[in-house]
Specification:
With 304 residues, the protein is mainly beta. 8% of the residues lie in helices and 42% in strands. It contains three helices and 22 strands. The longest helix is centred in the N-terminal third of the chain and has 11 residues. The relative contact order is 0.16. The mean pLDDT is 97. 6-O-phosphono-beta-D-glucopyranose (BG6) binds next to strand 19.
């Protein structure tokens, strides 16, 4: 982006004392938000929430110290937006895993100071020849991010075409935790999941989730709040959701993290992904003219 474009962006959409556009790491353009409740940084590439930190707290999102910031490369951490498919493309092996939304530019459509001091930014995915080649459908998609005491992220897809569309999607959120040994994930007890580490075997979750090795699971038909109970940071992160029927829990552990090159040797101890998703048998079919919203609201509660 040229400096003139950055000026134009700021003239149109900055909010005095709350939101400014800047050149961020790797030359990526970011929206920097700071209000009475929290601070956040969002890259226009991918409409990617990179950081979110409520005032007086540890960051809620994990961003790898080894993340690579470059055009067309997904950022390791924060909230990558996976759309319009989750995981590998169902038939085209050469298409990017988790869709292209996380690596292409999004347009800023609107910014506003809302509620009691929250800051909202609305993005629309910018279609290009490349996106149209992989997804030749009239299906505008929006991401609405609200930064306040909670972080709210809403992904809205419309089917403006004349045939049904099948969408897989995830707000692939990386959470910052004190240490993987000091945390448990609650809210998925007594549900079924497909275990990607065991070739998609179908399994049953009895109690809370503890992570002591590679975990890569799609919990199906799960709509309840998830809680990450972090004894080290003495807080509970609550992930409330709407329009999402799958929850993905992922931690690559050591071997897989080593192969990825942007995780770092200790990264797997400081993070867990709890993803608000519609994946595998929970993909969404949108009839012509239909609109679908998937919303995650992330907040924290003290454990004291
Ligand atoms: O490295 P990527 O493409 O960002 O994907 C990370 C992980 O994302 C998770 O959602 C998947 O379930 C994992 O299988 C995958 O490894």
């Amino acid at each position: 982006m040229q400096p003139a474009d950055l000026n134009a962006l700021n003239q149109r959409f900055s909010i005095s004392g709350q939101l400014v556009f800047k050149e961020g790491p790797g030359g990526l353009i970011v929206a920097e938000i700071a209000n009475a409740h929290a601070e956040a940084v969002i890259a226009l590439q991918g409409a990617h929430v990179m950081t979110y930190q409520p005032r007086g707290q540890e960051p809620v999102l994990w961003l790898s110290k080894f993340a690579k910031f470059a055009p067309g490369k997904s950022i390791r951490g924060g909230v990558p937006v996976c759309w319009p498919w989750f995981g590998p493309h169902p038939s085209e092996a050469s298409y990017p895993a988790h869709g292209y939304a996380r690596t292409v530019m999004w347009d800023v459509l609107e910014t506003a100071a809302v509620n009691e001091g929250d800051t909202q930014i609305k993005f629309g995915l910018a279609e290009t020849e490349t996106t149209r080649a992989q997804w030749p459908h009239a299906s505008p998609v929006l991401l609405i991010v609200t930064i306040g005491k909670a972080l709210s992220v809403e992904l809205v897809t419309s089917n403006n075409g004349s045939t049904p569309l099948v969408i897989g999607e995830a707000l692939h959120t990386y959470f910052n935790i004190s240490d993987v040994a000091d945390m448990a994930i609650l809210g998925l007890e007594k549900t079924d999941y497909l275990d990607k580490v065991a070739d998609f075997a179908s399994k049953h979750q009895e109690g809370a989730i503890q992570i002591e090795s590679e975990v890569d699971r799609v919990y199906l038909n799960t709509e309840a709040d998830c809680l990450i109970e972090d004894r080290g940071f003495k807080r509970r992160i609550r992930i409330a959701k709407k329009g999402s029927r799958s929850t993905v829990v992922w931690n690559p552990w050591t071997e897989k993290a080593d192969k990825m090159g942007d995780f770092g040797p200790e990264g797997h101890r400081e993070m867990v992904c709890v993803e608000t998703a519609n994946a595998l048998e929970n993909v969404v079919t949108l009839a012509p003219g239909e609109r679908h919203s998937m919303l995650a609201v992330i907040s924290t509660e003290s454990l004291d």
